[in-house]
Amino acid sequence: MNPFAPIREHKEDKETMMLKDIDAVIFDMDGTLIDSMWMWESLDVEYLKKHGISMPADLQKEIEGMSFSETADYFKQRFELSASIEQIKEEWNQMAWEKYNSEVPLKEGALALLKHLKQHNIKAGIATSNSRELADLVLKKLKITEYFDSIRTSCEVEKGKPAPDVYLLVAKDLHVSSERCLVFEDVVQGIMAGKNAGMKVCAVYDKFSEKDDAIKKELADYYIDSMTEVLSGR
Q1: What does the alpha-carbon distance between residue 154 and residue 232 come to, in Å, rounded to a whole number?
Q2: 153: closest CA among 36, 27, 15, 14?
Q3: Are the C-beta atoms of residues 187 and 162 closer than 8 Å to each other?
Q4: Residue (of 157, 96, 125, 149) closest to 25 by Cα position
Q5: DSSP3 helix / strand / coil % (the chain, rounded to 5)
Q6: Most exposed of 87, 117, 185, 194 (fewest Cβ within 10 Å)?
Q7: What are phi and psi for residue 214, nearest 5 degrees?
Q8: What pLDDT digit, counting tens, does each position of 28-80 carry?
Q9: Which of 24, 25, 29 is closest to 128 using CA atoms?
């Protein structure tokens, strides 16, 4: 007998049963639904360089999960920037606009999953830490806005991830209780936000956060390398 067979079978069961008893699926956007995390570190380097500041090694980890507004405030305080929070956000939007408009694709299997949810009357929402301007741009560009019943950003709630606020807000929009929601997230702070909201969470592989895969697997209810796995065996 293969000693690893029970473990493998259990994993397959979890993947095929992931949507069982689920009324709504809520997606993080960057690194989860779309392949975009690769660009943000380079944009941070570019932004700080314009202000004569070198990129600190700990910056990406420090701002993980923060809302767009919280991140702008963090930059302002840490780097003693003279620009207002709104000016910082506007500059980031301008810097990221072209890349989101031309270089950011959907993750593998994402469109098929969105179509499946629509066909099976499972509600879908987005809970992102990004700005509303960039969220609207990328959803329109990728022609997937129609698949979502709620699109919310962490700027619309009191606290960003790992606080559950943005996930709870989307669930409220969808009129679905937390325990009937499944969250897809790519980073530790986001996974914690979904769990803190009392929701099931599926961790998604992303190259940007692969160093945290062991922690992601420990925290989440499920882990996938690709969205194609969600519907495997169905």
Answers
A1: 32
A2: 27
A3: no
A4: 125
A5: 55, 15, 35
A6: 87
A7: -60, -40
A8: 999 999 999 888 888 899 999 999 999 999 998 899 889 899 999 999 999 99
A9: 29
Q: What is the pLDDT of residues 197-232, one digit of tens each?
A: 999 999 999 999 999 999 999 999 999 999 999 988
The amino acid sitting at 48 is L
The tokens describing 63, both together, are 């701002």
Hey, is 25 helix, strand or coil?
Answer: strand
Structure tokens that stand for 188 in this block:
């530790």
Portion of the chain with pLDDT greater than 90, in percent: 79
Can you give the pTM of this predicted structure?
A: 0.85
Which residues are CB-neighbours of 164 under 8 A, at least 6 positions away? 193, 194, 196, 197, 198
Handedness of CA 131, 52, 41, 191 (dihedral sign): negative
Q: CA-CA distance, 202 to 219, in Å (whole number)? A: 9
Who contacts 34 (Cβ-Cβ below 8 Å, separation ≥6)? 104, 105, 106, 107, 110, 138, 142
Under a CB-based contact definition with an 8 Å cutoff, are residues 186 and 203 in contact?
Answer: yes
- Give 234's contacts (C-beta < 8 A, 6+ positions apart): 16
Degrees, nearest 5: CA angle 2-7-11: 135
Where helices occur in the chain by DSSP H, the ranges are 5-16, 37-50, 59-63, 68-78, 85-102, 110-119, 132-141, 165-174, 188-196, 213-219
